[in-house]
Design a protein that fits this description.
Blueprint lengths: L3 H9 L4 H14 L21 E7 L7 E7 L2 H14 L4 H5 L3 H7 L2 H4 L2 H21 L2 H8 L1
Antiparallel strand pairs: 1-2
Helix pairs in contact: 2-3, 3-7
């Protein structure tokens, strides 16, 4: 599991966006395979031009932590998806609700280097991940909106 700071540090070690895109693609290639049976309509991200699926599950050995199976059919978005999975794995539903996608875009400079269509898709991915987390703990949505 990586933190936002660790991911930012990793990106800052690279000199240019060609290298950063290569890293994003590599991270996507390392994303564990998602079981085919989880690629359902309920797990499919709407609003993304790519075919993307995310499926939450209880983190092994915990009662309140969530992790995600995920897959995508395009390399860049699959890499971004891998980053999101790293950032949100082993978190509570409340922590997932508090995830700031705008901070993610700004700190990694994705807001400057991904197309507007990809922005929309990434927002849709995070939106589904948050909705799925609320299904594990509906109170998390109320707590997050109160802050």
């Amino acid at each position: 599991m990586k933190t936002m700071d660790e991911i930012v540090d990793m990106f800052e070690l690279l000199d240019d966006w060609d290298q950063r895109y290569s890293l994003i693609i590599e991270l996507g290639e390392e994303l564990p395979a998602m079981p085919l049976c989880l690629k359902t309509d309920d797990n499919k991200v709407r609003g993304c031009m790519s075919q993307v699926w995310v499926s939450p599950y209880r983190t092994e050995g915990t009662s309140d932590r969530i992790s995600y199976h995920a897959d995508c059919d395009t390399t860049i978005i699959k890499g971004v998806l891998a980053l999101l999975v790293q950032l949100l794995e082993n978190k509570t539903a409340q922590q997932i609700q508090l995830f700031d996608i705008d901070e993610f875009f700004t700190r990694l400079h994705l807001d400057e280097n991904l197309s507007p269509n990809r922005h929309v898709g990434v927002y849709a991915i995070v939106d589904l991940m948050k909705k799925q987390a609320m299904a594990f703990d509906p109170a998390a949505g109320r707590i997050a909106s109160a802050q």
